[in-house]
Specification:
Distance between the termini: 11 Å
Number of domains: 1
Radius of gyration: 16 Å
Number of helices: 8
Strand content: 15-25%
Number of strands: 6
Oligomer: single chain
Low-confidence stretches: none
Order of helices and strands: EHEHEHEHHHEEHH
Mean pLDDT: 93
Helix content: 25-40%
InterPro entries: AB_hydrolase_fold
Length: 204
């Protein structure tokens, strides 16, 4: 029996998982089984590490069940999936960051790290951790990572905080944060889906 390719889609700061479920429902025809996952960014009773550990537990469970596992992080979820990949490289086939801030950066005003992470201390912690983890990635690791950002700009996430040098950095013909995430997962998803399918075939 062939392995199933489970794709864990880690949400950003938004709370409406149903939209991500609906927009990725067609992926199954490519052999991809999306699982929308909420980190709980707005739960301030704990820091990021317990949240990350629960995501790692899910990755371990799926892998032990014989599934191929890939990760997608949308917006704030981008840093979370890179952090998870850094700790589970053997269990994860590929990782995609869609419009997610992966480093603190030097931007001021509305694009500053402090303003963009103000609503979630856990998100701030995740970004700081991610910035350190990126420095430890090998060229082989980066070959299993894709980043996606809009050509016409993102009003929330500066482009230079999204990319990872040496990874597959993709630019889509779009603009605006939420719209670009939606298009990346639907009408403009072909390159990302090919990347996921290829990584799954190589892992399987």
């Amino acid at each position: 029996m062939p392995k199933e390719h489970k794709v864990i889609i880690v949400q950003g700061l938004g709370r409406d998982a149903s939209k991500l479920v609906w927009i990725t429902r067609f992926w199954k025809k490519y052999g991809l089984n999306p699982i929308v996952y909420s980190v709980g960014w707005h739960d301030t009773e704990e820091g990021f590490v317990p949240k990350l550990n629960r995501l790692l537990d899910l990755i371990d469970k799926l892998f032990e069940e014989g599934d191929i596992v890939s990760l997608i992080g949308t917006s704030a979820g981008g840093s979370a999936v890179i952090n998870a990949f850094a700790k589970r490289k053997q269990q994860i086939a590929s990782v995609v960051n869609i419009c997610g801030r992966l480093r603190v950066g030097t931007h001021k005003g509305i694009h500053s790290f402090e303003i963009r992470t103000a609503s979630s201390p856990a998100f701030a912690e995740s970004v700081r951790m991610c910035e350190q983890e990126i420095e430890q990635l090998s060229s082989d690791d980066k070959d299993r990572i894709m980043t996606v950002r809009p050509l016409l700009g993102d009003e929330l996430v500066p482009a230079d905080t999204v990319i990872i040098n040496g990874a597959h950095n993709v630019v889509i013909p779009s603009g605006e944060h939420v719209l670009s995430i939606a298009l990346s997962l639907s009408l403009l998803s072909a390159e990302m889906i090919s990347f996921l399918v290829k990584s799954g075939a190589e892992s399987g």
